[in-house]
Write a structure and sequence with these properties.
277 residues; five-stranded parallel β-sheet; single chain; Rossmann fold; 2 domains; alpha/beta
């Protein structure tokens, strides 16, 4: 039986919140979410849950129509979007994770609202264990320089939690997490591995075009065909699905030690790239 203090009708404006709800077994409380939530959690489509605008473009009318008792959103979002959420008159939980530690806190916070704290601790323990296992497997190995980006125009490096995962997977993260960086600076850093995980792009990053237009064919990564795409939600969704991203990173950084991972795609036009140099 539900406690009157536990949310029963939730609107999630962020995929990470939806993934966490699914992980703690409370997807039944979800009455609306974004199209991006449906991408990372296929169960959404089978349940016929309403689709609303995301944290960037929140709409008070859309939210109010679903009669929620909790809205969960996350940064980055625009001030106007926050105003729309508040305008709906619904309790609002805003998430702003930067590190893996922050993500663990978010899992605990959401689970605590649903009296599922024990489940949250199990999820976090499993994530930590997986990270520790990969870190131990790469201990003492050469650490390739890895440039990983979450957006292409402008080029923006992946977030701090991705930098932590790159380190755990045996790499050296190139650049400042979450910051814009010019293409020339990446060339100057000469990474051994290039990874694109563009927000909202899934696996649809045009790797050969990216290398060609940015004149990155002289980098060590391009010369050796170590240019990869990792599914957006595996690295950009701060939730338990990051473990999939960790496995993909490990396979890209140390392919001789880790099997090909789901959501990882390597460039195939190596010959074409050589012709461009």
């Amino acid at each position: 039986m539900f406690s009157p203090h536990i949310p029963r009708r939730v609107v999630s404006l962020q995929p990470s919140a939806t993934v966490i709800l699914d992980a703690i077994g409370r997807l039944d409380c979800l009455v609306a979410c974004t199209k991006y939530c449906a991408d990372v959690c296929p169960e959404i489509s089978r349940r016929g849950i309403a689709i609303v605008s995301d944290s960037w473009t929140a709409n008070a009318e859309q939210i109010s129509k679903t009669a929620p008792d909790l809205v969960i959103a996350a940064v980055p979002y625009q001030e106007k979007a926050v105003a729309e959420i508040l305008k709906s008159g619904t309790r609002f939980l805003g998430l702003a994770p930067r590190s893996l530690s922050d993500i663990y806190t978010d899992i605990v916070s959401i689970a605590g609202m649903f009296a599922a704290s024990a489940c949250a601790e199990q999820i976090i323990a499993k994530m930590r264990d997986e990270i520790s296992v990969v870190r131990e497997q790469t201990r003492g190995k050469a650490r390739p320089r890895v440039f990983c980006e979450e957006w292409g125009k402008p080029i923006i490096t992946s977030q701090s939690w991705v930098a932590e995962l790159v380190e755990a997977a045996g790499g050296e993260f190139v650049g400042t997490p979450g910051a814009q960086i010019p293409a020339e600076a990446v060339v100057a850093a000469d990474p051994n591995v290039l990874i694109a995980a563009w927000c909202g792009a899934g696996e649809r990053v045009p790797l050969a075009k990216l290398i060609r237009e940015r004149q990155w064919s002289t980098t060590d990564a391009a010369k050796n065909g170590r240019v990869y795409c990792i599914r957006d939600e595996f690295l950009n969704t701060p939730a338990p699905t990051l473990i999939n991203g960790l496995r993909a990173l490990a396979a890209a950084i140390h392919p001789q030690d880790f099997p090909q991972a789901a959501g990882l795609r390597c460039i195939t036009d190596v010959a074409e790239l050589k012709d461009q140099r």
